[in-house]
């Protein structure tokens, strides 16, 4: 009887303490860092054959920093995630943040990269990151923060219509970013509800 209790206790402890996601996905983590290195190497390889990319050292440094920050953010999300929806929320938020910065610096989300309205996307993202860090990336807080980022995409588009008369607003791009942030918000909300049970 005592052995049965011990065995049952062991089974229960294993169920309550599953293997962390960052360990279960160790292979995917290695693949992710390898893919980042490959992406950084592609322009250099292309330049050797005189085709496509014409990057400077500054371009490589910028791309390397962007990929490194994104990779570290993904590692952090893996360690903080407590469920698959939680992990998906972090993945969507990191993806949206990466492409917000990349596209805004490359060509500008609205107009060109020098348009003043585009600084609003950087400001919204920076405030969101600071707020998330201060609130320790809790699921409920992340749901609210990413939801506000979704709304900010549309608000910045409306502001651009007034500040840049005669200039078309890329509503399709803004809708895509808003959808990504909204999807992340719903994932974090799902995790917050799970934790509240």
TrEMBL record:
Domain of life: Bacteria
Transmembrane segments: 60-80, 87-110, 116-135, 142-163, 169-188
Keyword annotations: Membrane, Transmembrane, Transmembrane helix
UniProt name for this protein: Uncharacterized protein
Organism expressing this protein natively: Aurantiacibacter rhizosphaerae
């Amino acid at each position: 009887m005592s052995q049965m209790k011990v065995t049952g206790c062991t089974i229960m402890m294993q169920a309550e303490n599953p293997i962390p996601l960052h360990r279960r996905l160790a292979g995917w983590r290695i693949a992710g860092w390898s893919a980042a290195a490959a992406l950084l190497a592609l322009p250099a390889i292309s330049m050797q054959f005189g085709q496509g990319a014409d990057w400077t050292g500054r371009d490589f440094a910028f791309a390397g920093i962007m990929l490194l920050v994104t990779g570290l953010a993904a590692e952090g999300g893996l360690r903080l995630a407590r469920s698959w929806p939680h992990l998906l929320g972090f993945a969507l938020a990191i993806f949206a943040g990466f492409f917000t910065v990349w596209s805004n610096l490359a060509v500008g989300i609205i107009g060109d990269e020098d348009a003043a309205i585009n600084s609003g996307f950087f400001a919204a993202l920076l405030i969101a990151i600071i707020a998330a860090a201060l609130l320790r990336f809790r699921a409920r807080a992340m749901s609210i923060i990413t939801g506000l980022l979704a709304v900010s995409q549309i608000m910045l588009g409306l502001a651009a219509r007034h500040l840049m008369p005669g200039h078309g607003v890329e509503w399709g791009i803004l809708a895509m970013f808003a959808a990504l942030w909204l999807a992340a918000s719903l994932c974090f909300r799902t995790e917050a509800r799970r934790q509240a049970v």
